[in-house]
Write a structure and sequence with these properties.
about 350 residues; two-stranded antiparallel ribbon; TIM Barrel; ten-stranded mixed beta sheet; DNA polymerase, domain 1; about 35% helix; alpha/beta
């Protein structure tokens, strides 16, 4: 396992094998996770021998391959991993927040029809170190500007709950008091609907936010664009979500990407209202970032859809579009680079 993916106690075990004092583990962990160091040379209070041992044993998990910046300030990063695979992360700056969207897999096996990552296929899971290193690289860059990451969303490439153990380890590393110490409620995990893992997450006793990619109101419609629905249909998914709410007391966000002519009618809005009535929830409406032949709804259609939900007392917001000029949708930049 990469050094970035180890907790202080695990670093101590590695140091003990080399007869290096245990207190160095806390120093190394702090350099990596609190100070977001991007090289061992930055760890100025470590002896040369320790740095040499670290350099021999632990190549850096990732490097920046390329980046793009939108006119609205959104930045997209393409990172190269040690095996030459590439993954994406997106920084979304706002007045009082710096939200980073990170990846959990190289590619994705879920094959959702409207997702560029799903269309490119699945390669492998990321390690916890590769997940966390995306955060630390961007944190290092922001620190130079006097800023810090405030929120993390696991909504980049891949299905987070399909990489369950590495996901949990990354959450606990980001939440660690000797590291970035990001509160669990500043972390959001997005899933296309793996019901057993949602139930397992509910029992982990971590107060992360959960976002469900819903995108349709009937099994027939949802299975058409999200094959995962054939394994875990709506009723099973919503029962798992209700269990999550009961166990954690946390409100669930339901993501609904509006695709013109498919799921954006007033009738479908009424069905969504009925589906979520009485649940502790929030609906996030997303005008789809076109991939392939899909088209986004009109501004009028989007507003009417939201009004139906509001009339049914379902909390709803419309996601502000960001980064459309830099291929900010998941997988688009990676797909472009692969084609080139």
């Amino acid at each position: 396992m990469d050094l970035v993916g180890l907790f202080p106690e695990e670093i101590k075990d590695w140091l003990a094998e080399r007869q290096i004092p245990a207190f160095r583990a806390d120093q190394i962990f702090a350099w990596l996770h609190r100070h977001a160091a991007q090289s061992f040379e930055e760890m100025t209070n470590l002896p040369k021998r320790v740095i040499t041992e670290l350099e021999k044993a632990f190549p850096w998990p990732l490097q920046l391959a390329t980046s793009r910046k939108s006119v609205d300030g959104t930045e997209k990063y393409l990172f190269a991993l040690k095996d030459r695979s590439t993954i994406e992360a997106v920084l979304i700056p706002e007045e009082e927040r710096q939200t980073l969207c990170i990846s959990t897999q190289v590619g994705c096996a879920m094959a959702c029809s409207f997702c560029a990552t799903g269309q490119s296929g699945y390669v492998r899971n990321l390690t916890a170190a590769e997940i966390v290193s995306q955060v630390l690289w961007v944190e290092n860059r922001l620190k130079a500007l006097g800023q810090n990451i405030t929120n993390i969303v696991y909504m980049g490439m891949g299905e987070p709950l399909a990489n369950y153990e590495a996901l949990l380890r990354s959450v606990r590393l980001l939440n660690h008091p000797q590291g970035l110490n990001l509160g669990a409620r500043r972390l959001t995990i997005s899933t296309c609907g793996l019901a057993p893992q949602i139930r397992a997450l509910a029992r982990e006793n971590i107060q992360v936010n959960l976002a469900i990619s819903l995108h349709a109101t009937t099994d027939a419609e949802r299975s058409e664009v999200m094959p995962v629905n054939k394994r875990f249909p709506l009723q099973e998914l919503l029962e798992a979500c209700e269990y999550y709410t009961e166990q954690t007391g946390r409100r669930i966000s339901y993501e609904y990407a509006l695709i013109h002519g498919f799921n954006d009618t007033v009738e479908q809005a009424k069905r969504l209202q009925h589906l979520l009535k009485g649940r502790l929830c929030h609906v996030n409406l997303i005008p789809i970032n076109p991939v392939g032949s899909e088209r986004r709804p009109s501004a009028k259609g989007l507003a009417e859809f939201a009004q139906v939900l509001e009339a049914g007392h379902i909390p709803v917001s419309i996601r502000k579009e960001r980064g459309t000029d830099i291929e900010a949708a998941c997988g688009q930049l990676r797909q472009t680079q692969l084609q080139e």
